[in-house]
Amino acid sequence: MTELTKQRFGALPAGEEIFLYRFSNGNGLAFTVTNFGGRIVNIWAPDREGKREDIALGFDTLDGYVHKNPYFGALVGRYANRIANGRFTLDGQVYQLPVNNPPNTLHGGFHGFDSVPWKAAEVHHNGSRALQLEYLSRDGEEGFPGNLQTTVLYSVTESNELRIDFHATTDKKTVLNLTNHSYFDLAGQGKGSVLDHVVTINADRYVPIDEHLIPTGALPAVAGTPFDFRTPRRIGERIDDPDPQLKLALGYDHTFVLSKDGANGPGFAAKAVEPKSGRTLEVYTTQPGVQFYTGNHLTGNVTGKGGVVYAFRTGFCLETQSFPDSPNHPDFPSTELAPGDDYRSTTIYRFSAE
Asked: Global pTM?
């Protein structure tokens, strides 16, 4: 039976109180979410011996999340990933967004969904207790058009699944790309490099980038490249190969084009295994892509839980989403949302040990 409890996490500078919501099931899986940025703060998962570790990078206090950080555990929006030059055209109108990752807009701008308080409520969903988070992004917020109402449901199942259901509507045509930006180390956060994790990604193609980490528009095959994770590979096996794409991103920081149809429900996207503990993460999603990121910008500049300094490549992300800069690439899957339409997507993180 899933349990859900609530406790105070702290207060924002303006005085608004922020809370932690803890989920647990009968199989040893537990996680906490804060309504500040909808962030996953902890994920406790058992290894093959039943020993639990917190496998999510993050902070012990609200203060760490309020100040600039690498989006640990965050709900990212309105647009996950990059938009070139912070600009796109919609029905003939040009929209200019804040450039917070010069020369681009990254993860929604300076004040994206990761840095706002969400309205939280406990609800029942699919026969289980869930946390419902709601946020109204006003027309013009961070330059995006339309009043966007977003609802996100977090739940945990008896099958050791952490499920995230996204829903959004707008009163004016806009663009939207939502994800969760959790960083994982299946050995336990702060345990060191993740390069020995063995990863599988269900993708025949990937999205190359230019020097500004913007898609070139091509969608080449992964075959014969360091981006071929169709069979299990160590993250570190080819990450330092003299490949131009790896050099541009300082490692893996690319969207993979998933070889599945999520129209009838979440399909298999990726799997990661930490060999020593046996902890395994499987990712299922309705989204067309997954951004595989290997913590290339963790350089000892962030102190996380327990005073641990997060060094280079000490966490990885599997961010389910549409493609970067899609509003400027008509051949990419559309990220447009019109009045009367429903944006819906689901991502499932399934934990086990082998």
From this structure: 0.96
Count, in order, helices (H) and strands (E) of the chain. 2, 28
Question: pLDDT grade, residue 1 (50/70/90)?
Answer: low
Cβ–Cβ < 8 Å for 115, 107: no
In this predicted structure, the answer to whether residue 40 has a pLDDT above a threshold of 80 is: yes
| C-alpha closest to that of 43 among 173, 166, 187 | 187
Other beta carbons within 10 Å of 308? 16
Phi, psi of 201 (to 5 degrees): -130, 125
Instruction: Sort residue 37 into left (φ over 0), alpha (ψ -120 to 50) or beta.
Output: left
**Residue 39 CA to chain centroid, in angstroms?**
10
The H or E element that residue 135 is part of is: strand 128-137
Q: Residues 338-349: pLDDT tens digits?
A: 999 999 999 999
Query: Kind of pairing, strands 17-24 and 30-34?
Result: antiparallel
102 and 84 in contact (C-beta within 8 Å)? no
Active-site residue list: 181, 319
